[in-house]
Design a protein that fits this description.
By secondary structure, the protein is an all-alpha fold. The chain has helices at about 1-20, 35-70, 75-90. It is globular, with a radius of gyration of 16 Å.
Length: about 110
């Protein structure tokens, strides 16, 4: 029974993360990371940030009833889920700031 619940929770969190639209949060980043920074980011930092995003999502789901009663569900979601997700998925490899390289952002047509 517990195994089925944990699988359902993992599948739900994975579906939420896949639905996350990273392009809407893209900001231009002008950094030139070194090869060592890129390698350490890929091997150590991204997996840790992914784990932080997953744990934050679980904590957010558990605390959601209390956040709704307190009126700060949006703030809790931003801090526990969206912030770590942006740092994990919307950041160039080896960069220290969240965002995309300028050449990957399409100009807005007005």
């Amino acid at each position: 029974m517990t195994r089925k619940i944990s699988r359902t929770l993992v599948a739900t969190v994975a579906a939420c993360l896949l639905a996350f639209s990273s392009l809407g949060y893209a900001q231009a980043v002008d950094e030139s990371p070194s090869a060592l920074a890129m390698a350490s980011d890929a091997v150590f930092i991204r997996p840790a940030l992914l784990a932080t995003t997953i744990v934050g999502s679980a904590v957010y789901l558990v605390s959601l009833p209390f956040s709704l009663l307190g009126g700060n569900a949006d703030e809790a979601g931003e801090v526990l889920v969206m912030g770590p997700a942006r740092a994990t998925f919307v950041r160039c490899l080896g960069c220290t700031r969240t965002g995309r390289k300028p050449e990957t952002i399409e100009p807005a047509n007005n």
